[in-house]
Amino acid sequence: MTSSGAAALPFTKGHGTENDFVLLFDPDGQMELTPATVRYLCDRRAGIGGDGVIRAVRAGRLEAGAGFPAETWFMDYWNSDGSLSEMCGNGARVFAAFLEREAGVDFSSPVTIGTRGGERTLTALGGGRYAVGMGAWSIPFADDGADSRVKAAGLSARPGLSVDVGNPHTVVALPSLDDLAALDLSRPPVVEPEPPQGSNVEFAVPLGDTTVDGERRGVVRMRVHERGSGETRSCGTGAVAVALAMRAWGGESAPTVWEVQVPGGAVVVRISPDAAVLEGPAVLVAAGGVSIPQA
Predict the structure, then answer these.
(1) Among 24, 203, 243, 288, which one has the highest count of C-beta atoms within 10 angstroms of its own C-beta?
(2) Which of 10, 32, 7 has the alpha carbon at shortest distance from 102?
(3) Are 45 and 86 contacting, i.e. CB atoms less than 8 angstroms apart?
């Protein structure tokens, strides 16, 4: 619904393991998307509500798309506080479902998209599930498996490990699910030394191994405080970071496939020496039009 005769801005609401987004289809880059508009759209009381905004735009229509072929679809991702982010793994899956519906894109084989974190590939797996080729990852060398200290409410300072999956993460291992539940993530954890671009922070508890269709998988449960969005029900890039940290801590005998449990569900991460793949669901739940306040 709109007021005062204002044209409605078409939107779609979607989520990946309850990490939710407001999606905008703007292939020609005609929309003036501002931090204030993003904050309004993500407001769960005054707006639509979401952990972020995703705009589907052709790379040639956006300055951030420079370096990609002009017709490449670009995932223009904004955090709920109006700041820009390099990449969102759950958002990328929802982006695929959105492009299937809005632009008829065929994801039966891998499709390359642009993001501020570099190119990514999206593939439909069937049954509402998608795989995201996450590209290269890196973990700094650390003799003791840590390169920082992390403080959070409800938890004494603990060692953290930096993981880069196109955006920055700090992963903290906890000994029990009780410790995980006791965390207060209503305010940002403090990472020391402070990362130059800030950091998403994941707290994770390893839960052993399982076998699915003859495939060995590690199992880990996590919670996350996302840079620019606060605690979310899931974080795709964070799940990848957690799997990579668990693999690094476990050594060569650790699994290369991980089931990562989050408050909003579970995703699967597949690790190779030079890349990682994130698999999980994407759901489009609503579509409509919203008026944008003048002030």
Answers:
(1) 243
(2) 10
(3) no
- Determine which helix (DSSP H) or strand (DSSP E) holds 205, and give its type and residue range: strand 200-212
42 is catalytic: no
Look at residue 6 in the predicted model and tell me its pLDDT.
57
Of the candidates 41, 122, 235, 267, the residue annotated as catalytic is 235
- Check: pTM over 0.85? Answer yes or no: yes
Map tokens 């938890």 to a residue. 155
| pLDDT tens-digit readout, 134-148 | 999 999 878 789 999
The 8-class DSSP code of residue 44 comes to T
> Of these residues, 24, 42, 56, 88, which one is catalytic?
88
Burial 114-145 (b: 16+ CB within 10 A, else e): bbbbeebbbbbeeeebbbbbbbebebeeeeee
Kindly report, residue by residue over 50-66, the tens digit of the pLDDT. 999 999 999 999 999 99
Structural domains of the chain, with CATH: 9-135+282-290 (3.10.310.10), 148-273 (3.10.310.10)
Helix (H) or strand (E) holding 242: helix 236-250
Distance, in Å, from the CA atom of 130 to the CA atom of 113, rounded to the nearest integer, reads 14
Tokens in use for 63? 């300055």
Q: For 157-206, write each residue's pLDDT tens digit.
A: 999 999 999 999 999 999 999 999 999 999 999 999 999 999 999 999 99
For residue 69, cis peptide bond before it (omega within 30 degrees of 0):
no
Angle between helices 236-250 and 89-103 (to 10 degrees): 140
